[in-house]
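Anyone up for a design puzzle?
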């Protein structure tokens, strides 16, 4: 979380290691084998927070129960939930817990969070291939621009294979980086490295530059070392699909994309035959929130509604809409008048 949530400042290395040892001693008894603390580069001088990944599948009780017990046992008085992250203050230091339900998410979240912002640095390169690297491993991002539909298609959670796709040897990552510079040099050794995504003026890049110490340090490293490498990525990222499919054959990427294409096309046919304008043409005056409520009720009352829309003739679909509206309108007005 970056350590800024509670505005507590950073801890020097020696003090951080003391707190980490205290929490490990407690968690080794409380959650043996059910937690991990991400690795950091060898000479990291200070820390803004501590991340702890916990696995629900390995816990003796639900996360809600364990969380309440940790609060009581560790004397925690300040907490905050931000999305899936449970943030606490332990001895005036921010400690963030990431609960993951199964073994796969547990391991891949740990891998992604190791070595500070390394995952975000690599993610900038993966995005040039239309890939997403995150807490669930590596995925291909399927997009349908006209409909804004997006879906992640999983490829792998194996770090060695992910790094290998970028032409990076996983050995240094496995052994751990002795310092920040060695980690940076590993990243820029990728044959696909480009300074472009780190120097662009997009809002997300600007935000990371302001908020993330390691990201800022990487940009400064590029400038200091005079690194100007710019791999010539294809403008049309779809051209990388065969390459990605060959690298991760078990994902059957091309077949998965074909299924998504078919799903998008099918949804387009449904939207063409049934939408707000079609309903308003059949029932003049129906608009705004009332129109939205009617459409929601119509779909809820007819399981497999999309299939029905595609199967019915235009006259049959119109009759269905009108007939349902006669019943629904009276019920809706009665409900509204009783409020």
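Challenge accepted. My sequence:
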């Amino acid at each position: 979380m970056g350590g800024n949530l509670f505005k507590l400042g950073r801890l020097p290395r020696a003090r951080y290691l003391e707190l980490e040892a205290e929490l490990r001693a407690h968690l080794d008894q409380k959650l043996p084998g059910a937690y991990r603390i991400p690795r950091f580069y060898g000479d990291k001088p200070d820390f803004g927070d501590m991340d702890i990944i916990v696995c629900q599948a390995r816990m003796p009780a639900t996360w809600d129960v364990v969380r309440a017990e940790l609060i009581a046992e560790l004397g925690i008085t300040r907490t905050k939930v931000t999305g899936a992250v449970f943030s606490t203050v332990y001895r005036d230091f921010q400690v963030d817990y990431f609960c993951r339900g199964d073994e796969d998410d547990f391991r891949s979240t740990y891998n992604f969070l190791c070595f500070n912002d390394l995952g975000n640095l690599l993610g900038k390169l993966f995005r040039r291939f239309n890939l997403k690297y995150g807490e669930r491993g590596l995925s291909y991002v399927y997009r349908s621009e006209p409909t804004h539909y997006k879906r992640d298609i999983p490829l792998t959670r194996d770090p060695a294979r992910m790094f290998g796709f970028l032409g990076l040897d996983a050995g240094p990552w496995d052994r751990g980086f002795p310092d920040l510079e060695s980690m940076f040099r590993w990243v820029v050794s990728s044959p696909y490295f480009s300074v472009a995504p780190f120097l662009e003026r997009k809002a997300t890049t600007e935000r990371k530059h302001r908020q993330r110490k390691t990201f800022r340090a990487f940009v400064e490293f590029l400038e200091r070392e005079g690194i100007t490498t710019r791999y010539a990525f294809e403008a049309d990222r779809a051209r990388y699909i065969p390459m990605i499919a060959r690298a991760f054959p078990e994902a059957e990427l091309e077949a998965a994309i074909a299924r998504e294409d078919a799903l998008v096309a099918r949804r387009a046919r449904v939207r063409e035959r049934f939408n707000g304008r079609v309903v308003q043409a059949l029932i003049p005056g129906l608009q705004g929130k009332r129109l939205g409520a009617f459409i929601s009720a119509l779909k809820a009352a007819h399981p497999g509604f999309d299939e029905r829309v595609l199967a019915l003739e235009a006259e049959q679909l119109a009759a269905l809409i009108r007939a349902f509206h006669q019943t629904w309108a009276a019920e809706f007005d009665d409900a509204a008048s009783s409020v």
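A detail worth pointing out: The chain has a mean pLDDT of 92.
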